[in-house]
Task: structure prediction
Amino acid sequence: METRKIITLLFNIISVFVLQATYAQDKNKDVVHDFELELQSEYRYFTDNASFQGQKDHFPSLAIFPEYNIQWNKGYDGINFTGFFRLDRDDNRTHWDIRELYYQKANNNWELSIGLKKIFWGVTESNHLVDIINQTDAVESFDGEAKLGQPMLQFTLTTNIGNFEFLYLPCHRKRVFSGEKGRLRFPVVIDKDDITYESSAEEWRQDIAFRWSHFIGAFDIGISHFYGNGREPLFTFDSFGELNAFYPVINQTGLDLQVTHNAFLWKLESIYRSSKAQDFFALTAGLEYTFSNIDGNGLDIGVLGEYLYDDRDKLALNALQNDVFFGSRIALNDVQDTSILIGGIADIESSSKILSIEASRRLGSSWKAELETRIFSAIDDEEFILSNFSQDTFLRLTLSKYF
Amino acid sequence: MNFFKKNHKHSTNFLIALAFIGFTHAQTPEERGLEIAKAAEQADLGFMSSTVELKMTLKNKNGQTSERSLTTKTLELTEDGDKSLIVFNSPKDVKGTSTLTFTHKVGSDDQWLYLPSIKRVKRISSNNKSGPFVGSEFAYEDLSSQEVEKYTYKFIEEKDGLLIVEQDPVDPKSGYTRRLVSYNKDKGYRIEKVEFYDRKNALLKTLTYSGYKLYKNKFWRAAVFNMVNHQSNKETQLEFNDYNFDANLSDDDFTQVALKRAGN
Result:
């Protein structure tokens, strides 16, 4: 298995740095170790009868997130590790990953990272167009914010005309889709190995990416480009009507911009993606306004509005073609960090709506409870992707313990 | 003011006259207040950079406590406000959450938040001055860099070696009408106590500093800040440990790249 090869290679690289760290430890006593562990129990309940055969309604699950950091040279050198394992009723959702395992060195105005790492690019809330470096862990979360660790060499140079970030990505990781028992899937269970590559080098295509980002007063701007195996598979039908799914070689240019003015955040993300099979443009733009400390006790209420556009129309994998997002973020700023995010995405051209509530609260000092619900309402049968999820309204409860 | 423009000769004479009066008469309370604030700023000039470990203890009106710990790095700038980087070490569910702040003497501060779970840096609004910092009795404005330009001043009195100065925040978004600050003249103008008056001009909070230590023979730093809210009867104590003035930090340690690094 290719993944195993990557991991073996990485462990070899990392062990060299661990040896270096041990050596540094002898010279310099300021080596800081840190081990953290989160244990999470989760229960997902899908309230409607399943659309497809084999799908279940109840999903009890357990997950473990170990984290280990070692730093030396006053924190300018270090190794970070974040692991992940989930046990779930859906076989494909039972999975493990090395989210991060990298060596990092910083020196004045540059920083270098080697290993598996997670990078986030972007500013908007309802959709993350510009964020392309890591493959989405599609079975882990619905919002697409869970990501697989991406092997990389990342070099960042900070100058007075902005940050220049260069990424070399030696291999690609495939997206995993729900298994037979799982919800939020298509009528056919997609085996990740059935999805092929346009590139003859397949997952070993050597990919590159670049981002320039800068802030000038109220403006935070980023311009990025990615050239390599796309993170989203492309679904096409051949002349015999057979489904053909593959990862195309893409060029994607992205722009992210935020203007922060008093309590207003104005946000824009836009991409242009081209490949042999498909060229398209997509945009998310909107604003966030926060009424802060309303009651004199710390209550913050934020209102969010975003417009989402995608050229791909019905073939868009994320189902956001011409939609409007409205939301409200409520933060109590209390001792237990209670917060609630309520939102809804509505299709402008059809009746389809997705409503969501996410809430979290710390219990005591080392526990945390989270609640998430996604309601699929009046999903139009014409929706290429979303129509499959019309019965997948769910409620998710998690309880985490931190060690 | 027009008088000066119309008649320069007269104005010169008038200024000389004023200077004479100045020698014999005390300055106005406003001038004295500003002078004290500037003297306090002057006394703390040249620390360059520092790092410190912070333990925050929140106590509610029933005496139940909860704790959090943070690491703070500060870079002194003279032409503009200081830069600071704060990293949360506990509670564990927010471990690694960090903020980067560029304080400005005039205008709103620039601030970024790093969320380690999704590796995201967010530029956030610094509009919220009066809101509580992580559920504590400290408002954001209480913890931001104290630049002279952020207040207008009025000297009130000298009592037991302490100079009491009233400070009125310039920013209309401040949660206070005024603060009464007690400076210790003989100890490098260090602050011993601050009383905060809310928007209705009622006494809201009292902050007392204790366990002062002199670092590098020049910089007074308190080991404990204790904030008592008189209206809610809640309390927050900040305990500072391991002050380090030899970290030799530079602008490169206060960037978005450094913010991400600090939170991992």
Notes: The first strand of chain A starts at residue 32 and ends at 46. Residues 262 and 289 of chain A are 9 Å apart (CA to CA).
